[in-house]
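>> Question from a student workshop board

For tomorrow's exercise we were told to take the sequence and the ligand below, predict the bound structure, and bring the output to class. My setup keeps failing. Could a helper post the expected result so I can at least see what it should look like? The ligand is adenosine-5'-triphosphate.
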Amino acid sequence: MDGTRGVAIRLEGVSKTYADGTQAVQELDLAVEPGELVALVGPSGCGKSTTLRMVNRLIEPTAGRIVVGDTDVTRTDPVVARRDMGYVIQQVGLFPHQTVRDNIATVPRLVGWNKARTADRVTEMLELVGLDPDTYAGRYPHELSGGQRQRVGVARALAADPPVLLMDEPFGAVDPIARDRLQAQFRSIQAQLGKTVLFVTHDIDEAVRLADRIAVFSVGGRLEQFADPATVLGAPATAFVADFVGSDRGLRRLAVTPIEPDDLEHPPTVSPQQPLAQARAVIDRAPEPYAVVVDDEGRLRGWVGVRECVGDGTVADRMRRFDETVEVGDTLRRALAEIVQHDAGWLPVLDGDERYQGVLTPTSVYTALRRHLPEGAATPEATPEATQETAEDVTA
Ligand SMILES: Nc1ncnc2c1ncn2[C@@H]1O[C@H](COP(=O)(O)OP(=O)(O)OP(=O)(O)O)[C@@H](O)[C@H]1O
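>> Workshop helper replied:
Here is what the output should look like for this input. Compare the format with yours to find the bug.
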């Protein structure tokens, strides 16, 4: 979809001290690239929302400069600056006495779009967020589910095609299943639109799932680390970050680590036309008690184990099919989930053209996870002290 692409956001030495002396944000420097999706995370009260609201000047910084695209928003009329920044909040903030249509049309009308252009845009935005315009445009907010209200909130924020989107716990108020769906949908919307998105969440899994980079704050608005999810999880910069992302960060890394061809194992392969006796001989020479059946075009057909390789006939007569496969580029988490779900010792991996590439086993998933540790990553999980600690935790 054509539209305004994202612009850079720069915070330079930004601080906020509230009137009662609370230091919410201290000397914050943060540079967000155009089109980047950045999550602000940290414990309650660490200044995430304050930071977000200083960008659209709902809160005035006490020091520093905030530049959005070419505009120093700290020196611009905030009402004008806000037109370039869609804003989505947890409770959505839809106008209760206006229809969905009128809610979405708010900013386009404000900036003087004519009726026809505004009406087209409302339809386009409802379709973008997956709500049928004929059904929903005329409804009032109380006639929608929480998830639908949230989607209308996103549609409204995007309606005037701003380059920047600011979101404060955008999916916080919906149930976990709707939340998963909304997150996936938002990712695909963002992939199409390429806006610059700053969003606040206290949910590290949401940040890992959605963000290109994660900014981790500690109380007092100090930036502890600003890096991509794999680095935050695999190489936490400080003890604070390690604690915040949790002792199960190793598991979380599964979700951000893609399957690569180098990670795969290569058990023996046979073709469907081969006699079973030949397949048996192939398996007997290999450490694995099975062979993968691949046809002449490199497509996966199934597998045979030693037990199938008896009697006359060909591999095609006795081979078994797979319940599941994964592709190179899918996450290790997906692979492990399939292995566990199907109680399988191994899982075939295809390329984007459905050609067989190799297999993953629980061991190779683990090896891949270790290989993908970001540079400079200490592996606290593997140190004697950490092992000791875990043992104490277990016995405590
Ligand atoms: N208007 C205000 N006056 C005084 N202190 C404030 C004000 N607004 C926020 N604070 C304080 O500033 C600090 C940062 O608040 P902020 O809302 O930015 O945190 P947060 O990280 O978004 O927290 P949460 O996750 O709980 O929403 C907190 O200590 C909060 O109590």
